[in-house]
C-alpha cells in the first residue's frame, strides 16, 4: 500500500446506460486524488454506452463488456479485476459529490478498514434528500455488524472497503446481496470510521426497491443467517409495533 495515497479502485457497473453513464464517468475522472484505478463493468450493452465510455479510455484502467447474471455478478467481476487497496462502487447514474471528495475522505482515513459517509438521494422529480447513517448508527463508535439487524442505513456509493476484507457477493440473494455482504465485511473490519461528509449523489429506485416483496424475504433470510431465528422474529415484532405506534399518533 502507498502510505501517502492508497490506491482506490472505483468500479462502475452499467448496462444500456447511454443516458446516464457520462455524468458518472465525468465525476470519477474529475477527482483530484492521485491514485485511482477506474474499472467499468458492462453487461454487453445494446445501446451506445460503450461508445461514450471509449471517449474516456485514457482515464479508465479496464473496460469489461460481457453478459452477466445480474448486478451482483457484475460487482463480483469488478472486485476480482480490481487491484486497489480499497474498493468503491459508483454505478451508472451515480455521481461523486465533488472533485475533491476522495482527497478529503482519504486525508485522515487512509488506514481504516471501513470508511463511510453521507449520500444525497435524488428522487424522480430531481429533489435531493440526505441519506446518512442514522439511528441506530449515530456514530462510528456504534456502527458494527451487530447493529445491522436494525437495517442498512448506508449505501454502497458512500462506503470504502479494504479490498483484502471484501468477500464476493453471494449470488443466492438476487436483490439484497449487498445487505449480506455489508454484514460480512463489518464482521471482519477492525476499524470503522464515519467521515461526516457527503460522498455522492444517486438516483432513487434500486433493484431492492423495484422488487420489494422478494427483497423483504431475502432480507429476513439474511438476518436469520447472521442473528438467528428468534432474534430476527423479535426484531420484526418491534419494528411492527413501532410502525403501529407511529400510525396511531397521526
Explain what this protein looks like in three dimensions.
The protein is built from eight helices and nine strands. The chain has helices at 21-29, 49-54, 71-81, 101-107, 177-188, 207-210, 212-227, 229-248; strands spanning 8-14, 36-42, 62-65, 86-89, 95-96, 114-122, 128-131, 159-162, 192-203. Helix 7 (212-227) crosses helix 8. The longest helix is centred in the C-terminal third of the chain and has 20 residues, at 229-248. The termini are far apart. The relative contact order is 0.15. It comes from uncultured Aureispira sp. Keywords: Transferase.
Tally of individual helices: 8
Uncertain segments of ≥5 residues (pLDDT<50)? 133-141
CATH C-level: Alpha Beta
End-to-end Cα distance: 54 Å
As a percent range, the share of strand residues is: 15-25%
Pattern of helices and strands: EHEHEHEEHEEEHEHHH
Biggest sheet record: 9 strands, mixed
Extended strand count: 9
Based on CA inertia axes, which overall geometry fits?
globular
Query: Under the CATH scheme, which architecture would be assigned?
Result: Alpha-Beta Complex
Q: What's the oligomerization state?
A: single chain
Helix fraction, binned, reads 25-40%
Pfam family, one: Glycos_transf_2
GO molecular function, one term: hexosyltransferase activity
Protein name: Glycosyl transferase family protein
Keywords: Transferase
Amino acid at each position: 500500500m502507498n502510505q501517502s495515497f492508497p490506491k482506490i479502485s472505483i468500479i462502475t457497473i452499467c448496462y444500456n446506460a447511454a443516458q446516464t453513464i457520462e455524468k458518472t464517468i465525468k465525476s470519477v475522472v474529475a477527482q483530484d486524488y492521485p491514485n485511482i484505478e477506474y474499472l467499468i463493468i458492462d453487461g454487453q450493452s445494446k445501446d451506445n454506452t460503450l461508445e461514450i465510455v471509449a471517449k474516456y479510455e485514457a482515464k479508465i484502467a479496464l473496460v469489461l463488456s460481457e453478459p452477466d447474471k445480474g448486478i451482483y455478478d457484475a460487482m463480483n467481476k469488478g472486485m476480482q479485476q480490481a487491484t486497489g487497496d480499497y474498493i468503491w462502487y459508483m454505478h451508472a447514474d451515480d455521481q461523486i459529490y465533488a472533485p475533491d471528495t476522495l482527497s478529503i475522505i482519504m486525508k485522515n482515513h487512509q488506514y481504516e478498514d471501513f470508511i463511510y459517509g453521507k449520500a444525497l438521494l435524488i428522487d424522480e422529480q430531481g429533489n435531493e434528500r440526505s441519506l446518512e447513517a442514522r439511528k441506530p448508527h449515530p456514530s462510528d463508535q456504534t456502527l458494527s455488524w451487530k447493529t445491522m439487524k436494525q437495517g442498512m442505513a448506508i449505501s454502497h456509493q458512500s462506503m470504502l472497503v479494504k479490498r483484502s476484507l471484501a468477500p464476493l457477493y453471494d449470488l443466492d440473494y438476487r436483490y439484497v446481496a449487498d445487505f449480506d455482504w455489508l454484514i460480512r465485511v463489518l464482521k471482519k473490519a477492525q476499524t470503522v470510521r464515519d467521515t461526516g461528509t457527503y460522498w455522492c449523489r444517486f438516483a432513487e429506485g434500486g433493484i431492492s426497491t423495484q422488487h420489494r416483496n422478494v427483497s423483504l424475504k431475502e432480507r429476513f433470510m439474511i438476518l436469520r443467517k447472521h442473528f438467528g431465528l428468534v432474534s430476527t422474529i423479535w426484531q420484526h415484532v418491534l419494528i411492527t409495533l413501532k410502525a403501529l405506534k407511529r400510525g396511531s399518533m397521526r
